[in-house]
Amino acid sequence: MTNAVEPSRRVSFDTWGPYVLLAVAVVTAAGAAHSIGMTRSAMYAAGALAAVAVPLQLCLGLARRNTPGPNRTTAALYFLRWALGFALAWLNPFFAFYAVSGYYSADRHLPRRLVMPGLVLTAITMAGSQIGGLPPHGPVSWMGFFVVFAANVGLVTLFTRFARQEQALTQDQADTIAELERTNTALQEALEENAALHAQLLVQAREAGVADERRRLAAEIHDTIAQGLTGIIAQLQVVANAPDLDTARTHLERASSLARHSLGEARRSVHNLAPVALAADGLPEAMKKTVTDWGERTGARADFTVTGTAEHLHEEVSATLLRISQEALSNAARHARPTRVGVTLSFMGDEVTLDIRDDGTGFDPAAVPERTHAGGFGLDGMRARAERIAGSLTVESEPGHGTAVSARVPLVRDDR
Q1: Is the peptide bond before 139 cis (omega within 30 degrees of 0)?
Q2: What gap in Å lies between CA 342 and CA 301, rounded to an integer?
């Protein structure tokens, strides 16, 4: 607000100030004319020059409005006004009231290289009036003139320097404000761009979440329906070759139980719930039942062991470990034909490990083919499950020497 008011006041002074100063100079000069010994012809000359000063000032103001900024026309009119003021001050030193306007308008009407000469000329007029009028009479008057002139030039130089410093500071402030406005505009554009990127990232995250959920559901369905159907087929194959009715009935009951179990698992998987076995029991009990049921279905010896102090785990951790054990046992039954399997669940401080070992045919882990549409999720599915909860899975196997699968996951307790 202050910076805007100051230039406005200065423009008003440059417009009307010279007229006011001319009026003051005419009144004071007329009042002192007889006391300083002005002749009648000098009075007439001063009156004529004062009358010329009015249209001259009008021309200066018009030139300033038509061509903003210092130019040749304004410079010529400035020096013409100085000459008029000098002549008036020569006739009557009180006309210095009018001549002093040159101090205030030099930088507005003169190019930068002519500002100091214009101020020096005005200082000559002012020094002459301050010693009592021009020309000086005698050596003392001339000495006084030069002293006063030097003082005027010194003050003009000092104030001009201050004015230019203030002008440079004002320009720097204006440049800073303009730069801040550009920065704010760029920042606003960046914020709008970031908002668009954020929206795009949300869409991508949502799509990634949907894809991950689809993979999870696919793995869940594979672990439930596919494994259940595999077990049912195996039981029905036994029924087809059963030597007597009791044996057939036993395997039919097992097939029926597997079908009901798989149906419950499928429903819970679709609703993103924990495995059926975990609905009523903790992980150790659920895993023990899984190992026992697997052993009964396959006829292989299946042992389950818990080491460490059992903890009540978060349902996602429990479901992950149970699914890994189910997949590992299913793989062993399909591919390894083991006679003995050992499953160990270990609670060790801040992590839980699951080890499944069998004495089956084994395989070369480096030669495992890529999963096909007809195959299961296998090792990749188990590894993905472990990594989903910041865990890891390793497989050690050798043809003819069995297989060992080990999963390590963080021990995350269920706080409910």
Answers
A1: no
A2: 8
Tokens at 381, concatenated: 């599915």
pTM: 0.41
Q: State the Cα–Cα distance between residues 109 and 64, nearest whole angstrom.
A: 8
CA–CA gap between residue 105 and residue 257 (Å, rounded) = 107
Q: What is the DSSP letter of 351?
A: E
Query: Quick one: tokens of 137?
Result: 């009479």
* SS percent in the chain: helix, strand, coil, step 5: 70, 10, 20
The pair of three-digit structure tokens given for residue 249, joined into one six-digit string: 């009935």
Question: If you compute the radius of gyration of the chain from its CA atoms, what whole number of angstroms results?
Answer: 52
Report the Cα–Cα distance between both ends of the chain, in Å, rounded.
63
Q: Are strands 392-397 and 301-307 parallel, antiparallel or unpaired?
A: unpaired
Residue 344: exposed, middle, or buried by beta-carbon count in 10 A (0-12, 13-18, 19+)? middle
- 309 contacts: CB under 8 Å, gap ≥ 6: 347
Token representation of residue 412: 């995350």
* Phi, psi (deg, nearest 5) at residue 192: -65, -40
CA dihedral 230, 231, 233, 238 (to 10 degrees): 150
The torsion angles phi and psi of 170, rounded to 5 degrees, stand at -60, -40
What's the pLDDT at 372? 45
pLDDT in tens, 381-390: 889 889 988 8
